[in-house]
Amino acid sequence: MSSEAAVATGAPAAGAATVPLLRVQGLAKHFGAFRALDGVSFDVMPGEVLGLVGPNGSGKTTCINVITGLYRPDGGSILYQGRPVGGMAAHRLVHQGINRSFQIPKPFKSLTVRQNVEVARTYGQHAARAGEAEGGVAGDIGELLRFLGLEQHADRMAGELTSAQQKMLDLARALATRPKLLCVDELGAGLNPAELDLVAGRLRELARSGIALLVVEHLMDFVDEVTDRLIVLSAGKNLFAGTLAQAVQDPRVVEVFLGAPDEH
Ligand SMILES: Nc1ncnc2c1ncn2[C@@H]1O[C@H](COP(=O)(O)OP(=O)(O)OP(=O)(O)O)[C@@H](O)[C@H]1O
Question: Residue 4 falls within a domain, yes or no?
């Protein structure tokens, strides 16, 4: 990688000892002639919370969709724990420790909250059998529901939950598979300030427990609270890598994404 690319992607300096959990290099995804991802590169370090931000349509969700196996990449590489996983089916990635939550959760509405999480646990049982990440918040379903404020709803049908509660359930389902890398797609949208506070705290707690997070989000206060570092995408390409404090000083980021302070 050139030194310029290393700066743009926030890659660690050559010779740095820490190995990325996920390394995305030159990732491409095309829909017909349209290049939704046009050579995106970044690393996610173990236990890191990396924000993936940018204007509407810049490719953030597509990036998560490719990393988690919903779409096959059209170019570039995805290395997870040093091994290529680009194009691998979603269920295999879940077994490897990569899972995600969705912008619009789709729980099994006629199953209870607990049953929804049990189904997810079964789906991820390969990881459970391997005895990885036992204990912690993802160790026990009751504990997981408590962690996400769902314990009093455990026996309700998922279809009866509010949309905020459905987002928590979606997170619980992803965590039930004991991910090492959790991709979180616009969790903050539609949550009230108290719910946002709770979720931000929980995501930080997950990171402290060793889970790496890739967080797509529009709410910049939430991004500020939750993430260690940001990648800004613009039109399917890397625009910036660094902290939010650095991003607000970067004229390119201000121009295409953040806007001038008086525009807020
Ligand atoms: N399945 C698809 N077929 C065709 N075009 C798609 C598909 N998925 C995404 N796109 C297009 O790719 C571009 C990137 O979409 P994507 O959802 O990744 O953007 P985003 O950065 O997540 O946007 P937002 O912040 O609005 O959610 C958009 O122009 C979108 O219309």
Answer: no
